[in-house]
Amino acid sequence: MQWNLVLLTVMAQNYLMVCQHYEYHYIEEEKTWAEAQRYCREKHTDLATVSNMTDMKRLLNISPVNVREAWIGLYDQTKAQRTWHWSLPGVEYNESEANWEINEPNNKGSKGQNCGIIWKTNIRFLKWGDISCNEQYAFLCYDDNNSSKMFHFIKEKTTWLKAQSYCREKHTDLVSGRNQLQEKYTNNGLYFQDTDLRYIFMGLFSDTWRWSDGSSFSFRHWNLQFDNQIINSGQCAMAVFNDEGRWKNEICTVRKPFICYRESTVILIKENKTWEDALSYCRDHHHGLITITNLDEQRLVQQEAQFASTPFVWMGLHYACTLDLWFWISDEVVSYKNWASVEPMDDCNMSGAMETGGNHQWFKTNDTKRFNFICSKKRR
């Protein structure tokens, strides 16, 4: 008998994409995880928290070439109940919206069952179950790279961790969240040809790992050899830089270099706006459009700019026709300069935009063009 998996597309919602990243600082001195945590809390904010793949790429960018591995802020508790998470960053697990089969999750087996499956209980209904992450099943990827919100059923059977890695490399992530798992059937091209196919991996997992700063981020980037049934181990996580920064669990008393973070003073807004609309948004929600007065500030802003979805990002730099001068809207003098040419043309209705690639130089641009933009945060 042939059966179809019916999944509705995600509800169409327009979200304002705010990219708030951490400033990462690599510390070469070797310390235990607890010593590293204490150092980071005294000198910066805390041991590194990683909320998504963009943060992971930023963390890789600050690591010296000769560094093999370094502590991050993830640790495994010793006496804690496991917590369920969705693989896709930003999707929160809500128990009241769960669709577990009766007596699920039951966490059976000597090492437990910490990964979620879509369970075909009958021809017209799908339920959720928990199963060993190290068993091998087909899986469902989700692709958010276009407006159609496509799903991709992968028949090749593999472990949950390898399925997650595949989906993140080829698409966006494993299918995650109740909105992506609507319980209705429709002929949308997702066919399961195998008559005996009963379980399909989805992006639900549970663990007892927590971030040092108390963040609830579900993002994990374990190496493919990680035994993701491990819970209550009391171990700590490190990033292994010769393995694409993938994480490895280790005894916390081992001495390693480590990575701290400090809360960033700038925020990339991935929404296309005119210069005036960007200025209004930053003033309403943060402090203002970014000001750059020295090379260090230039480097900080260009670290954010590289993740924009437009070729330029707006800055708080504007040309005043009546005064015949360029000025920062924060009233700072334009002393440090990074123009693409020696001097900008003095035209009305022009503002400064930084290129998001290349040398991140500044360009005079018409105010009415629509770009991503970078806001400065309010001082605490």
UniProtKB/TrEMBL annotation:
Residues in C-type lectin domain copies: 19-142, 146-261, 260-376
Record keyword Nucleotide-binding present: no
Keyword Signal: yes
Annotated signal sequence range: 1-19
Coiled-coil regions listed in the entry: none
Family matches, as InterPro entries: C-type_lectin-like (IPR001304), C-type_lectin-like/link_sf (IPR016186), C-type_lectin_CS (IPR018378), CTDL_fold (IPR016187)
UniProt keyword list: Disulfide bond, Signal
Membrane-spanning ranges: none
Protein name: C-type lectin domain-containing protein
Species of origin: Goodea atripinnis
Upper classification of the organism: Eukaryota, Metazoa, Chordata, Craniata, Vertebrata
